[in-house]
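Internal QA ticket QA-208
Title: Verify multi-chain structure generation after dependency bump
Assignee: T.L.

Test input:
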Amino acid sequence: MDTKIAQRPSIFRSDATQRLLAFAGLIVIFVVFSLASPYFFQFDNIVGILLATTVNGILALGVTFVIITGGIDLSVGTVMTFSAVMTGVFITFWGLPVPLGILGGLLAGGLCGFINGVLIARFRVPPFIATLGMLYATKGLSLIISGVKPIYFNDSPGFRGIVMDSALGRIIPGLNIPNAVLVLFGAAIIAGLILSKTVLGRYTVALGSNEEAVRLSGINTVGWKTAVYTLGGLFSGLAGVVIASRLNSAQPALGPGYELDAIAAVVIGGTSLSGGEGTILGTIIGAFVISVLTNGLRIMSVPQEWQFVVTGSILVLAVYFDLVRRKR
Amino acid sequence: MNELIISMEGIEKTFPGVHALNQCRFDLRAGEVHALVGENGAGKSTMMKVLAGVYAKDAGRILFKDREVDIPNPRIAQHLGISMIHQELNLIPHLSVAQNIFIGREPRTGLGIFLNEDRINAQTEALFQTMHLKLDPKVRVSDLTVAMQQMVEIAKSLSIHSEVLIMDEPTAALTEAEIEELFRIISHLREQGVGIVYITHRLEELKRISDRITVMRDGHYINTVETQAIAIDQIISMMVGRTIDEMAPDIPEIKAPEVVLEVKSLNRSGSIKDVSFRLKRGEILGFAGLMGAGRTEVARAIFGADPIDSGEIYVMGKPVYIKSPSDAVRHGIGYLSEDRKRYGLALKMDVETNIVLAAFRRYLGYLGWVNQARTRTTAEHYVGTLSIRTPGTQQLVKNLSGGNQQKVVIGKWLVADTNILIFDEPTRGIDVGAKSEIHKLLNELAHQGKAIIMISSELPEILRMSHRVIVMCEGRITGELSAREATQEAIMKLATQRSLIVSSSDSTPTE
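Actual output:
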């Protein structure tokens, strides 16, 4: 006779179900808007939604890693702007070739993330405070470096095309989806692989689940935690390059507020703020929930003030349902 | 005689308020099992945590194969080949069994970028086979019982192939057959020349498994002896530093068997299964069982700290609905957590505030200001009656010793006017002297008519203190014993009534 030796998690509680539920929620919102407005389910509008998700989606990818470790990153929005400004400095002010400028922008973001990581992991500054400090610092630096003026990329005509052209449209005529959307999905696939298939991803989950156990297993927790924040910074850097290319300029006053959208996307996607669990697919779904809501409500001429109210309510409801589901 | 692998000399370690290790020494040879024994708070775990790089020593030398080494963190310890199975289980709940076992040593694939999950699982499977362990490597650790988590910890440390293996009470949650399997594994390792440090409370294990025994007491090194050359009684007297009249159970018969608390069919998914019992006035009801048996869960459920799925609770014969700890306090139930630092005390506040904390409302004057004169009078009264050793009522609780902290918690619940007191491991981490004081205090409280539930993992404590003993295993009550029927053997038999994790034969069934 074989006795049951471990309680298997019920299907209801499994991660796959969570993603399915979030996805079902997204579909429901989609269908509701399609029925409510004839302008919603149009190719151009869908492309608009995809494009509107890119920046927030990329930021949310980085935030997902940080939140899974049980931390938080409030600086992603202003680090994004800082990276955009640095890209502008490299390309427009210094006249570096575009690829080098982009690399510089990415690294600027990575550097900010690295500093966050060192402060948090090595010097044990609470993540909330360390990244809040980084938020202010990068906000100020962006304004100082740019001279409080936008930096335009008019001397590098190809720069805007990097994310706004459509490679897909060239292959399949008519399917004019901007490259920015491909960048988002490419970044998401890389993030997904890192999280589920690499050591960095494994330790990200482990740190959020039981940091002391990780330390006692002989793992350099300080180093790996720093790596997670650095990765978050690199994604902010990528978002900075994308937004600079899209606007064909680095707008130094942009940034604050983006971090909240990114955190909201991650949380709606089922990542636990107490750490240890979360998925990239969930985050992407979460990012789309936010942009579909914003887009749909705007099409239905709901004033922007009310859009905020709806987004806030959805955020709290999503987390509450997740809690109820887990308790069962 | 085999070569020495480890030699520790003059080890010092001080924590705030506690001199944990005072000029301690320890050595370990290759291919021996060296048992480390002593009462709670003797410094055994601290000593070994210094060796495993968990704590940094304040002074002293550690020689690894005659070479002085510095072991500032667990990583360095692992590089030297020293690994430790911790008493408080240190697994990562969100990862699978196999992922936990190979954490930090993951095999890679694809140019070393990706994790080789298949190999992790296959190697874990093979490892479990050698241990005769029936367990799926892909199960998440959070879905395992405590006993199984303990086996996973053991498997993890075996997979490391260390030269020095420290086991801190590895058998605390295991049944006889599982312990047998563990001993078989230990003997095998010993033959391979691994040096094993074995910390235990179960002295009967010493003769079966150890080659040498080192005794520690109150942070001091006492002696190291050959196991063959000594009797267990001598070990005990070295541990306590005097011959104790261990068996002096002053358990008076209860005259008025008035039922104060009755619990009927308490259920909570996964942790409590159909628990029913009665508690009488003036009685100390012992709750015995292995680690993870569900005793704390029952206490927390009665106290309203965790929600229940079904069940009824009666206080003084009346049904009560306890949804939160404040409901419980209103019905006169107090709970003294096993982790008093986390759940029982406001460590950074003074003795006075802690004592009145649960009944604060009674000490508020007009406009909600605290009447400090009255809180002081109350605090001074209890500092006196409970003989709490503190320079004053203004002393911060974190500066008191473990025993005195526990007394503060007891004082707190007395002020709150509770008649039902649930003590969860009341003497854990408390030194020997203070321990008997706490025991005396419990007896006095019972004499005064309080009804007491005492959860304890120390069988001698259960046997010495309880009027009746309830034994739990895997969330169920497996038996009730009167003080007369209660023996170590009877309790252990009831405490291990569950399905085994290890299979007895070599033909391990795999799923």
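Spot checks passed. The two ends of chain A are 29 Å apart (CA to CA).
Status: verified.
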